[in-house]
Design a protein that fits this description.
Elements (H helix, E strand, L loop, with lengths): L4 H24 L5 E2 L3 H4 L4 E9 L5 H11 L11 E2 L2 E6 L9 H8 L7 E10 L6 H10 L8 H7 L6 H24 L5 H4 L5 E6 L4 E7 L10 H12 L22 H11 L2 E2 L23 E6 L3 H9 L4 E6 L24 E4 L3
Parallel strand pairs: 7-8, 9-10, 10-11
Antiparallel strand pairs: 1-11, 2-4, 2-5, 3-4, 6-7, 6-9
Helix pairs in contact: 1-7
């Protein structure tokens, strides 16, 4: 027997309220955001076995170091100091072949040093340079390291990067992404809104220099396999700069300011969140670009409900996004944390910062 219409409508309310609860939790969480940094920052640093020689006479240290640096340079271990008191770092154990001893190795390669050392020992040293002060402190217990502190990185690593006002703004823009998802899912009569959040995404792009939303996009993968929300948002940003590839109607009628967004949604967001909406005016080719834009998403912040996939993440690299924020991990295809960390690939010509931890 079919349920009365009133009961059907009532059954969907708790699900909708669950999204509202998520939004409130995102906006009111006291926690700072977490930066997704290179694994070297948080994981234990790999070690390498090396030979160390204890020198007999301290007066021989200078000539010993000069000779070793010339004949047996450390190459991949240049972050390590060559001397620690009377101990001298000779070479990685991998340099030795045919089961020869370190004494035989020195006699064959640096005969002038064959009588300089009292004894030898084998130790493990950090194979990579320290990135943080705490790593440097631990490394120095084993062997002396060269280290140049990076206060910006230190701040990111302890999850205390944003001040209260900045956090409020980041959480507001992420809450807007969830409001957008709720709007479109309700519009398509998708009763189980919470489950649908696992199958869709919303992207909000913000120009922090003017505290304004440049574009918002909702997934359109059901109709076009490439139109993930991030791809659509980047293309719509291009439209604000007289570019763009996909034919998306400008439904809000505010003259090239925000493309492809439902006018009803736009009015609701402005009323609910009191946000500024619109992109900077595009400059001509001969005008100064000293402030870094606007070329696509140069200097922009990008907020997504779910961690972007590899395609979307590479698009953000090419679009020159400055920071990317996401709420939920994408365990199947996430390219910023779960499957890989694209933002930490060293040979890319652009890298952005990534933050999560909204819930």
């Amino acid at each position: 027997m079919e349920e009365p219409p009133a009961k059907k409508a009532k059954a969907a309310d708790p699900v909708s309220e669950n999204i509202d609860n998520l939004i409130e939790n995102i906006k009111n969480s006291p926690n700072n955001l977490h930066a997704i940094l290179n694994l070297e920052i948080h994981d234990s640093i790999p070690t390498e076995k090396v030979y160390v020689g204890h020198i007999k006479n301290s007066k021989d240290l200078s000539i010993t170091i000069l000779t070793l640096n010339e004949i047996i340079p450390l190459k991949q271990l240049q972050h390590l100091k060559r001397v620690r008191k009377k101990d001298v770092l000779l070479c990685p154990t991998s340099y030795l072949t045919n089961n020869s001893s370190i004494q035989e190795f020195l006699e064959a390669n640096v005969p002038s040093l064959r009588h300089v050392f009292e004894y030898f020992k084998e130790i493990e040293v950090p194979a990579l340079p320290p990135k943080l002060k705490r790593q440097h402190f631990e490394f120095n217990k084993v062997w002396s390291c060269n280290f140049h502190p990076n206060e910006y990185l230190e701040k990111m690593a302890v999850d205390n990067f944003f001040n209260e006002a900045e956090l409020k703004n980041h959480r507001m823009y992420m809450a807007i992404a969830f409001d957008v998802a709720k709007f479109y899912l309700e519009k398509t009569n998708n009763v189980n809104l919470i489950s649908s959040l696992n199958l869709t995404n919303v992207t909000v792009i913000v120009d922090p220099s003017i505290s304004s939303i440049v574009d918002i996009a909702f997934d359109n993968r059901e109709n076009h396999p490439l139109q993930h929300s991030t791809m659509l948002a980047i293309d719509n940003v291009a439209k604000t700069q007289n570019g763009g590839a996909w034919n998306v109607d400008n439904k809000n009628g505010i003259d090239n300011k925000l493309w492809g967004i439902d006018k009803e949604l736009l009015d609701d967001l402005q009323q609910k969140h009191d946000v500024c909406i619109g992109a900077r005016q595009v400059r001509g080719k001969n005008e100064s670009c000293d402030d870094g834009g606007p070329y696509l998403c140069t200097g922009y912040y990008v907020y997504t409900i779910r961690e972007p996939c590899i395609m979307c993440s590479m698009a953000l690299v090419h679009a020159r996004a400055k920071r990317v924020f996401f709420c939920f991990e994408n365990t199947s295809f996430g390219a910023l944390k779960c499957k890989t960390q694209l933002q930490n690939v060293p040979f890319l010509n652009h890298r952005f910062e990534v933050f999560t931890g909204f819930l």
